[in-house]
Amino acid sequence: EVQLMESGGDLVQPGGSLRLSCAASGFTFSTYAMNWVRQAPGKGLEWVSSISGSGGSTYYADSVKGRFTISRDNSKNTLYLQMNSLRAEDTAVFYCAKGWSGYIDHWGQGTLVTVSS
Amino acid sequence: EIVLTQSPATLSLSPGERATLSCRASQSVSSYLAWYQHKPGQAPRLLIYDASNRASGIPARFSGSGSGTDFTLTISSLEPEDFAVYYCQQRSNWPVTFGPGTKVDIK
Predict the structure, then answer these.
(1) Shortest CA distance to B89 belongs to which of B42, B35, B8?
(2) Does B98 touch chain A (CB under 8 A)?
(3) Which of B42, B43, B101 sits opposite A44 (nearest CB)?
(4) For B79-101, how does the pLDDT look when each residue is reduced to its tens digit (9 = 90+)?
């Protein structure tokens, strides 16, 4: 059974940093692209970033480019999202999501990031 | 960036009724479109991929159709557990984009 467990969400001040982690199990982690998708309060789903199975290719939404960095450690079956220069508009539930043919076939339960002073 | 528009924003129906949800793309996405179901406090669930293929374990009452710019998700007879928000997503072009969602609520 595929399991994705996010952690690291917290309350952080504007301009601050946070690192999210996602522990994956139940599939061959290094074989699949992984994604971060977020949902701001009362809003819809927004794709944030993707990384290839090897980690050699990364992609970012314009809204986070230059501030967020996606990475993965295939030896630990773990996905990361380093978030710097956080803004109030980054407040959201962040979902770790397993990629499959350009879609997402499994999602974690999400971790809440709140950016506020 | 490809913009996805979903209509209606809210659909109020009773259990047993048929639900028809629309997703329109700002340019052709061929058949590279998926539908997801999202309930409050839960992880989203993949329902349909490549416009018309049901994902593993998805009941036959869910069906998808369309290509190019116009797509439809149909729920043939609503069950109580189907009341949720539904999102379309395209993977034709980077960046991947989602529609704003259609909320299906109980009438």
Answers:
(1) B35
(2) yes
(3) B101
(4) 999 999 999 999 999 899 999 99
